[in-house]
Write a structure and sequence with these properties.
By secondary structure, this protein is an alpha+beta fold. The protein has a single domain, classed as Beta-Lactamase, CATH 3.30.450. The protein has three helices and three strands; from the N terminus they run ααβββα. It has a three-stranded antiparallel β-sheet with strand order 1-2-3. Strand 1 and strand 2 form a beta hairpin.
Length: 94
């Protein structure tokens, strides 16, 4: 949901909240973090591998209301061993 905030909101949050390295693969560089948010906006979903939990991968997407405003999000997680490129394509294909 963060990716769909206005740039001012993203800047405020990334400056106020330190990007903590809770797991080895978490992005803590604000510029790289913002680049990932931009990619999420472009594609309409995000995929992460072992960023939140070692051994798990996630696909997340916003849920929009009738006006296009983000009101919720959906996240699907799977063990890395069952998260192949083909399985990702099943989730993200229209």
């Amino acid at each position: 949901m963060l990716a769909f905030l206005p740039d001012e909101g993203i800047d405020r949050i990334t400056k106020k909240e330190k990007l903590a390295k809770l797991e080895p693969n978490i992005i803590t560089n604000p510029d790289i973090f913002k680049e990932n948010l931009d990619e999420t906006k472009i594609h309409g979903y995000t995929v992460s591998f072992e960023e939140r939990v070692i051994g798990c991968a996630y696909i997340g997407a916003p849920i929009l209301d009738y006006s296009g405003k983000v009101t919720a999000s959906l996240d699907v997680s799977r063990p890395i061993s069952r998260f192949t490129l083909q399985s990702v394509l099943v989730f993200i294909s229209p």
